[in-house]
C-alpha cells in the first residue's frame, strides 16, 4: 500500500508537508524530509530570538533545505550561532560553514521538492518554419511520491492547460482570449496590450508571456514579436500612432489587444490612425461598467462610441468565431490597408472555454499573404463591403465556415426579424415560427444595400436588440437600421422597434428575448419592457449545466472537469467564469454547460442541475439555490453532519432546499486531504473525483481514465492505486442528506428577507469599491496591490482618481486584494480578548480567541499563529504631522517579488494612503539598522547632522550605536532627531522595512474548537534606559487593543511541537508563563481523544510563573483536568510564593524516577517538551540528565548522549522564544 507521502518546500503540490506523518518508521523518507523542515524551523527560531538583522534573514533564506536535513541538533545550533555571530557573513562564508558542518555527516537523501510553475512553452515541429505555439496558462505542478520502501517511485506532472494545443481529434480546447491572442500574436511583429477589465487574465496577458519566452510568430519573424504593455489613459494609442506613422512600421504587422475602456480613451488618435491607411487590428474585449461599477454583460456601448472614427468594425460571438474573425480581421487589414476593430465579448467569450477547430498557423500566414498580394482599392462603402465579403468567401475553405457582413438565419418568409450585434446573438435562438435573426458581423462600414438584401422581403417587424442606458434615447444600431429602411423597395416598410436591454432590471437572456419577441409581434411598435422582464423566466429554455462555486485557491476543479467532458466523452462544452475578487478570498462562479450534441446552443442564463460548492462561506453571500432547477444536486464541502446543516445554514436557505427538493450532499474535503496528505494539485484531484462520483453523468469510468492521462506519471500503477483509494474514500465520506419535510414548513420571517435577496450570481465587478474609500476596507487589513506598466521601483505619490481607476479595473491592472505578504493568510475576527492576570498586577497576560468560521483556516496541534499587527494609530498620526505630510496622501508602493516567484515575475505595486502604509505595513517604530542611518546621510542638509550620522555608523561610533540600540530607539526617533535629513515621502517609504508578523503558539485544539483558535499572550512593555520613556512591543500592543469583532490577518506556521503518534505515549510538558500555550492545546487534544473512547497515556505538566495569585494561567482548567485524571501529574512552581525561589527544574529533579521511566522505558517511549523563555533550558536539561544518570547508573557524558539521541528522535523538543 501506498504510504504517503510528503512534499517539501513550496506549498502547492499534491501532498502536504504538514501531513508528513510521524507514524512513519525511521527509515521512511518522509521523516527525513519532515526533519529538514523542523530543522529549518529550529534554526530560524533560534536566530529570530536574537533580533536578526535583515541581511542575516536573507542569508537564511538562501540555505538549501536539503543541507539542513542532514544536520544534527547540535550542528544546527552551531549553524544558528554562526549566523548570529556575524552580521557580515556573506553567502560564501555561510556556504563554507554549511559545508564544514555537513562534512561530518553523510547526506543520506536528496530531498525532492515539489515545484509549481506557470508554463508557457513553444513546440517546434518539423523545420524551423513549422512552429506551433503550445501555451498553458494554468499552473503545472510536479509532485513526488515516495513509498514505504524508500524508493522514489512516482513522479507526477500535471499541467492544466487551456491554451491552444494540438489535440488528437483536431479540436482544441481554448478560451476566447487565448484564441484571439494566438492569432494576433502569430500574425504580428508588434503587439500593443491595453489590459482588459472583465477577465481574470486579460486579453494580451498570454502574449506578454509568449514574448518573454521568446516564442516566434508564424510570419517567420526570427525574434519573438515585441509585446508592449500600455496603460489606459487619456489620449491612449499615441504610441500606436507613433508606430503607424514611422517609416519602419510601415512594413510591420501590428495589432493591439485592448479593453473597451482603452478604446474610449483612444478616440482622438483613432481618427488619425484610420486616415493613415495602416493595416492594424484592434482586438477589443468589450465590457461596460454601470454607475454602480458593475460590469454589464453583453453591453458593447463603450466600444461602439468609436464607430465614427473611420475604423472597420467586426464582431464575433463565440470562441470559435473569435478565432475565425481574428484571422479574417488580419486578412482584411492586409488586403484593404484599413484599421479594424474586432470586438469580442470581454465578459463572456473572453473567459469561455470551448473546443474549437483551428487552422495551422502557417496556413493562416499563407492565406494572409495571399490576400495582401491581392490588395484591393475601394471607392465607396458598398464596394469595400463587397471586397470584404470576397475575403470571407475565400476564407470559407480555410475556416470551414462562411461569414457574411449581415448573417440571416431563420425562415425565408419570416415576418419578424430580430437584429442583433454581439452577445445578443447567443441568446437569439428558437424565438418563434416566423421569426428570423439577423446578426451584424460587419458593423462598420454599414452598407445599406447589404443590410437590406439580408432582410426577408416578408418582414413586417424588425426588432433591434441593443443595450441602451436610458429609456428615451435610441441606440446607434437602431438608427442605422431605421436609416437603411428609407431605401426599402419592398411592399410595406417594416416597423422598426428598438428593444433595449439594461432597463427595468432586464438582462440579456433567451427568456427575455423570447418574451420580447412575443410581445412585439402583437404590438404596434411600442413595448412594455417591464412586462417583458416579468415573463422572461418562464420562457427560458432548459439546458443542462453544472455550477461551480470555487475560491481562487482551488479554482481549477471546474476547468479539469470541462476538459474531461471534452476529451473523455467528446462533449461540446462551454466553461465560463465570473470572479468576485473584492472579497478576502476571491469567489469564482463557473457555469459549465455540456452536451453530446455538437449542434446544441448554450444559453447564458440557464438553471443548473448540479452545484459544487467548494467553500460554504459563499452560502451567506449568494443565493445559490435560486440558480438551480428543482431536484438538482447540491454538493457542499463542509465538516458538517446532517444535524449541523440545520444549525449552520439560514432558514431561507433550507426553505429553498425544501421548495426545490434539492438533493444535498456533504463532504469534508479537509478530512480527506488530511488523511491522504493532499494539498494543492492533490486537492484539485480530490475535487474532480468527488464530482465524478456524485454527478449523474455517464462520465465516470471514462473520466477516471482521463484523470490518469491528464497527469504524466512515472508509475501509473501507483497512481491508479492512489485514485482508487481516493474514490473509495470519497464513497465513504459523502453524506446524503435526506429531504427534510420541515424545510418546506419553515415560515420565513422578515429577518430572512435579506438571505432571500442575496445575489444569485457573482457579478464580475468591484462592488466593494465604495468600501475601499469608506475605510471599511482598511479596517479589514486588506490592501490592494497594483501592477503598473513601467513603474519605477520606488514608492510614489498617486491620486485618489488613479487609485479608483485601478480598483475599478482590477483585472486590467491585475489588482489583487490580499491580506498580507504571506500567501496563506486568513482574515479572522476576535471573539474574546480576556485579561488573565489581575489589573493590579504589572504584567498583562491575556487570552485571545479568534473566530475562524468560513475562513478555511486549519491548524495542527503545536502550530503557531502568525499575527500581522498594526502600529498604533495615534503615534503614526503624530509622526505624519511631524513629517509635514498628510495622512490621506495616496502612495503607490512596490512590493517585493516573493522569493519563490517564477522567473520574470514583475514587482507588484500597492496603493495605500500614507497613514495606512505606516500603520499597517512599514515598521516605523522598529529598530533602525545601520543601513537606515547610512541611507539618511545624503538627505541631511545640516552638516553637523550629516557628520553625526556618519560617526554613529563608523567603527568609532560603535559603542554609542550599541547604547542607542539598548535605548530601543526607533526609525521615527531617528527621523525626529535628525530633522534636516528629510527624504521625500516615497523615498522614506522605500527606506523603511516592512513590519514582520509575530508568532504565537496556538493554545487550542481544532478538534475541541473547530471554528476558533486561541492564544495566550503576554503584553511586552519596557522602559527605555536613558530617556525613561515607556516602550511597547509592536504586536502585543496591537493585540491588547483589539475588541471583539475586530478583524485580524493571520497565518499558520508549522512547528516542532507535535504530540507523539500514539495516544498512549507519555507526554511530559514544561512551560513557563506563556510557554503554557501549546500545552493547553496538547491537553485539549488528549481530552478530545479520551471523549472519543480512546485510551490516553499519562500527561505530566510542570508549570512555572511568579506567583499563584497573579499568574496561575488557566489554573482552573488545569485543576479540572487534573481532577479528571487526564493530567496525571500537575507540578507547579511559583517562584515568588515563598522565601526561597522555586523553579520548575527543582520540581523535575524531585520526579527523577518518573522522568526516567516515562522517557527511557522502551514500552512507553515518552516525549519531553519545554516551551517559553530560553533561560531555564540549561537547568531543565540538567534535571533530566540527572534523572538518567540515576536511573541508568551512567556517567554525565552518557546521560547527555541519551538526551541528544532523544532530540534526534524528536522526543526532546524545545520551543523557546
Ligand atoms: C514559535 C514562537 C512561539 C511564540 N509563542 C508565544 C506565545 O504563545 N505567547 C507570547 O506571548 N509570545 C510568544 N512568542 C513571542 C512573540 O512572537 C513575540 O516575540 C512577542 O509577543 C513580542 O512581540 P512584540 O511585537 O509585542 O514586541 P517587539 O516589538 O517585537 O519587541 C520585542 C523585543 O524586541 C526588542 N526591540 C523592540 N523594538 C526595538 C528597537 N527599536 N530597538 C531595539 N530593540 C527593540 C526589545 O527587546 C523588545 O522587548 C512566540 C515566539 C515564537 C518564535
From TrEMBL:
InterPro entries: CysJ-like_FAD-binding, FAD-bd_FR_type, Flavoprot_Pyr_Nucl_cyt_Rdtase, FNR_nucleotide-bd, NADPH_Cyt_P450_Rdtase_alpha, OxRdtase_FAD/NAD-bd, Pyrv_Fd/Flavodoxin_OxRdtase_N, Pyrv_flavodox_OxRed_cen. Residues 120-142 are annotated as: Disordered. Keywords: Electron transport, FAD, Flavoprotein, FMN, NADP, Oxidoreductase, Transport. Pathway: Sulfur metabolism; hydrogen sulfide biosynthesis; hydrogen sulfide from sulfite (NADPH route): step 1/1. Its EC number is 1.8.1.2. One of its GO terms (cellular component) is cytosol. Residues 823-1060 form the FAD-binding FR-type domain. It comes from the Eukaryota. It is an enzyme of class 1 (oxidoreductase). Residues 131-142 have a biased composition (Polar residues). It catalyses: hydrogen sulfide + 3 NADP(+) + 3 H2O = sulfite + 3 NADPH + 4 H(+). GO terms for molecular function: flavin adenine dinucleotide binding; FMN binding; sulfite reductase (NADPH) activity. The keyword Metal-binding does not apply. Its cofactor is FAD; FMN. This enzyme catalyzes the 6-electron reduction of sulfite to sulfide. This is one of several activities required for the biosynthesis of L-cysteine from sulfate. This is assimilatory sulfite reductase (NADPH).
Amino acid at each position: 500500500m501506498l504510504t504517503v507521502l510528503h512534499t517539501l518546500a513550496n506549498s502547492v503540490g499534491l501532498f502536504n508537508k504538514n501531513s508528513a506523518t510521524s507514524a512513519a518508521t525511521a527509515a521512511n523518507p518522509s521523516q527525513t524530509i519532515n526533519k529538514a523542515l523542523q530543522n529549518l524551523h529550529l534554526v530560524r527560531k533560534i536566530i529570530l530570538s536574537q533580533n536578526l538583522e535583515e541581511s542575516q534573514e536573507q542569508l537564511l533564506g538562501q540555505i538549501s533545505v536539503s543541507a539542513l536535513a542532514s544536520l544534527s541538533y547540535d550542528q544546527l545550533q552551531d549553524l544558528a550561532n554562526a549566523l548570529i555571530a556575524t552580521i557580515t557573513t556573506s553567502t560564501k562564508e555561510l556556504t563554507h560553514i554549511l559545508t564544514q558542518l555537513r562534512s561530518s555527516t553523510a547526506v543520506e537523501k536528496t530531498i525532492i521538492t515539489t515545484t509549481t510553475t506557470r508554463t508557457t512553452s513553444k513546440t517546434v515541429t518539423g523545420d524551423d518554419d513549422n512552429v506551433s505555439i503550445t501555451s498553458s496558462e494554468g499552473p503545472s505542478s510536479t509532485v513526488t511520491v515516495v513509498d514505504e520502501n524508500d524508493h522514489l517511485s512516482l513522479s507526477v506532472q500535471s499541467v492544466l492547460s487551456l491554451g491552444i494545443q494540438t489535440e488528437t481529434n483536431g479540436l482544441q480546447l481554448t478560451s476566447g482570449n487565448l484564441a484571439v491572442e494566438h492569432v494576433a500574436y502569430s500574425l504580428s511583429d508588434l503587439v500593443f496590450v491595453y489590459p482588459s477589465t472583465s477577465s481574470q487574465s486579460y486579453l494580451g496577458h498570454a502574449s506578454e508571456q509568449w514574448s518573454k519566452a521568446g516564442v516566434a510568430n508564424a510570419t517567420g519573424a526570427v525574434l519573438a514579436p515585441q509585446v508592449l504593455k500600455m496603460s489606459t489613459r487619456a489620449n491612449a494609442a499615441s504610441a500606436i500612432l507613433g508606430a503607424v506613422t514611422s517609416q519602419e512600421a510601415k512594413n510591420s504587422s501590428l495589432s493591439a489587444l485592448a479593453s473597451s475602456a482603452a478604446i474610449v480613451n483612444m478616440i482622438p488618435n483613432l481618427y488619425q490612425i484610420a486616415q493613415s491607411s495602416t493595416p492594424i487590428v484592434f482586438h477589443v474585449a468589450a465590457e461596460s461598467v454601470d454607475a454602480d461599477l458593475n460590469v454589464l454583460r453583453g453591453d458593447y456601448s463603450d466600444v461602439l462610441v468609436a464607430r465614427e472614427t473611420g475604423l472597420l468594425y467586426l464582431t464575433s460571438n463565440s470562441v470559435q468565431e473569435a478565432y475565425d474573425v481574428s484571422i479574417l480581421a488580419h486578412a482584411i487589414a492586409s488586403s484593404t490597408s484599413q484599421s479594424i476593430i474586432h470586438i469580442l465579448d470581454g465578459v463572456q467569450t473572453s473567459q469561455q472555454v470551448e473546443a474549437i477547430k483551428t487552422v495551422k498557423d502557417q496556413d493562416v500566414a499563407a492565406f494572409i499573404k495571399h490576400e495582401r498580394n491581392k490588395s484591393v482599392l475601394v471607392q465607396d462603402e458598398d464596394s469595400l463591403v463587397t471586397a470584404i465579403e470576397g475575403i470571407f468567401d475565400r476564407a470559407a475553405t480555410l475556416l470551414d465556415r462562411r461569414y457574411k457582413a449581415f448573417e440571416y438565419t431563420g425562415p425565408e418568409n419570416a415576418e419578424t426579424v430580430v437584429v442583433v450585434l454581439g452577445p445578443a446573438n447567443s441568446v437569439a435562438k428558437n424565438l418563434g415560427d416566423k421569426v428570423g435573426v439577423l446578426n451584424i458581423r460587419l458593423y462598420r462600414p454599414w452598407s445599406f444595400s447589404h443590410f437590406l438584401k439580408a432582410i426577408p422581403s416578408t418582414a413586417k417587424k424588425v426588432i433591434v436588440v441593443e443595450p441602451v442606458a436610458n429609456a428615451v434615447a435610441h441606440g446607434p444600431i437602431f438608427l442605422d437600421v431605421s436609416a437603411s429602411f428609407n431605401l426599402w423597395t419592398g411592399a410595406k416598410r417594416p416597423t422598426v422597434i428598438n428593444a433595449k436591454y439594461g432597463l427595468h432590471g432586464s438582462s440579456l437572456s433567451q427568456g427575455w428575448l423570447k418574451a420580447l419577441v412575443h410581445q412585439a409581434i402583437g404590438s404596434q411598435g411600442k413595448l412594455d419592457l417591464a412586462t417583458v422582464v416579468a415573463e422572461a423566466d418562464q420562457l427560458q429554455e432548459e439546458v443542462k449545466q453544472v455550477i461551480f462555486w470555487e475560491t481562487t485557491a482551488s479554482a481549477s476543479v471546474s476547468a479539469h472537469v470541462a476538459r474531461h467532458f471534452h476529451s473523455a466523452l467528446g462533449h461540446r462544452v462551454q466553461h465560463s467564469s465570473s470572479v468576485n475578487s473584492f472579497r478576502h478570498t476571491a469567489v469564482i462562479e463557473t457555469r459549465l454547460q455540456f452536451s453530446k450534441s455538437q449542434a446544441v446552443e448554450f444559453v447564458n442564463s440557464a438553471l443548473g442541475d448540479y452545484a459544487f460548492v467548494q467553500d460554504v462561506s459563499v452560502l451567506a453571500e449568494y443565493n445559490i439555490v435560486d440558480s438551480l432547477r428543482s431536484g438538482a444536486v447540491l454538493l457542499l464541502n463542509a465538516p458538517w453532519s446532517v444535524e449541523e446543516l440545520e444549525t449552520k445554514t439560514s432558514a431561507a436557505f433550507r426553505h429553498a432546499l425544501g421548495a426545490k427538493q434539492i438533493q444535498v450532499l456533504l463532504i469534508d474535503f479537509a478530512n480527506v486531504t488530511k488523511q491522504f496528505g493532499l494539498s494543492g494539485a492533490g486537492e484539485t484531484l480530490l475535487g474532480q473525483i468527488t464530482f465524478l462520483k456524485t454527478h449523474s453523468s455517464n462520465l465516470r469510468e471514462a473520466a477516471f481514465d482521463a484523470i490518469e492521462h491528464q497527469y504524466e506519471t512515472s508509475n501509473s500503477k501507483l497512481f491508479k492505486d492512489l485514485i482508487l483509494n481516493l474514490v473509495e474514500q470519497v464513497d465513504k465520506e459523502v453524506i446524503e442528506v435526506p429531504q427534510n419535510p420541515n424545510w418546506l414548513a419553515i415560515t420565513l420571517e422578515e429577518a430572512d428577507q435579506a438571505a432571500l435577496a442575496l445575489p444569485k450570481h457573482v457579478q464580475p465587478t468591484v462592488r466593494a469599491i465604495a468600501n475601499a474609500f469608506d475605510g471599511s476596507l482598511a479596517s479589514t487589513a486588506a490592501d490592494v496591490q497594483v501592477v503598473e506598466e513601467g513603474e519605477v521601483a520606488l514608492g510614489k505619490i498617486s491620486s485618489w482618481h488613479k487609485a479608483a481607476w485601478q480598483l475599478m479595473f482590477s483585472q486590467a491592472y491585475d489588482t489583487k486584494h490580499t491580506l498580507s505578504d504571506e500567501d496563506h493568510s486568513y482574515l479572522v475576527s476576535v471573539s474574546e480578548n480576556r485579561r488573565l492576570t489581575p489589573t493590579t498586577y504589572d504584567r498583562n497576560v491575556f487570552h485571545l480567541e479568534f473566530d475562524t468560521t468560513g475562513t478555511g483556516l486549519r491548524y495542527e496541534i503545536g502550530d503557531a499563529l502568525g499575527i500581522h499587527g498594526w502600529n498604533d494609530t495615534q503615534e503614526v498620526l503624530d509622526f505624519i504631522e511631524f513629517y509635514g505630510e498628510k495622512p490621506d496622501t495616496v502612495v503607490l508602493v512596490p512590493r517585493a517579488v516573493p522569493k519563490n516567484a517564477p522567473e520574470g515575475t514583475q514587482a507588484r505595486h500597492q496603493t495605500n494612503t500614507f497613514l495606512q502604509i505606516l500603520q499597517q505595513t512599514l515598521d516605523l517604530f522598529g529598530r533602525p539598522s545601520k543601513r537606515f542611518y547610512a541611507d539618511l546621510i545624503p538627505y541631511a542638509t545640516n552638516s553637523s547632522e550629516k557628520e553625526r550620522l556618519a560617526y554613529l555608523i563608523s567603527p568609532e561610533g560603535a559603542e554609542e550605536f550599541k547604547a542607542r540600540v539598548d535605548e530601543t530607539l526607533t526609525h521615527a526617533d531617528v527621523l525626529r532627531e535628525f530633522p534636516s535629513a528629510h527624504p521625500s515621502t516615497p523615498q522614506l517609504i522605500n527606506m523603511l522595512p516592512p513590519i514582520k508578523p509575530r508568532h504565537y503558539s496556538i493554545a487550542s485544539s481544532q478538534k475541541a474548537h473547530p471554528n476558533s483558535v486561541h492564544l495566550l499572550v503576554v503584553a511586552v512593555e519596557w522602559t527605555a534606559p536613558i530617556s525613561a520613556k515607556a516602550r511597547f512591543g509592536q504586536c502585543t500592543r496591537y493585540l491588547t487593543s483589539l475588541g471583539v469583532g475586530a478583524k485580524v490577518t493571520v497565518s499558520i506556521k508549522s512547528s516542532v511541537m507535535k504530540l507523539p503518534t500514539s495516544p498512549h505515549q507519555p507526554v511530559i510538558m514544561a512551560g513557563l508563563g506563556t510557554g503554557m500555550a501549546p500545552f493547553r492545546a496538547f491537553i485539549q487534544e488528549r481530552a478530545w481523544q479520551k471523549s472519543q473512547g480512546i485510551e490516553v497515556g499519562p500527561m505530566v505538566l510542570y508549570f512555572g510563573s511568579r506567583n499563584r495569585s497573579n499568574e496561575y494561567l488557566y489554573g482552573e482548567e488545569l485543576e479540572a483536568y487534573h481532577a479528571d485524571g487526564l493530567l496525571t501529574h500537575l507540578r507547579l512552581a511559583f517562584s515568588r510564593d515563598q522565601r526561597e525561589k522555586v523553579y520548575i527544574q527543582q520540581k523535575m529533579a524531585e520526579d527523577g524516577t518518573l522522568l526516567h521511566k516515562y522517557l527511557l522505558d522502551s514500552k512507553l517511549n515518552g516525549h519531553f517538551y519545554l516551551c517559553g523563555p530560553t533561560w531555564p533550558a540549561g537547568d531543565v536539561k540538567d534535571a533530566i540528565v540527572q534523572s538518567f544518570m540515576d536511573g541508568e547508573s551512567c556517567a554525565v557524558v552518557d546521560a547527555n548522549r541519551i538526551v541528544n539521541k532523544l532530540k534526534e528522535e524528536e522526543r526532546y523538543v524545545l520551543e523557546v522564544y
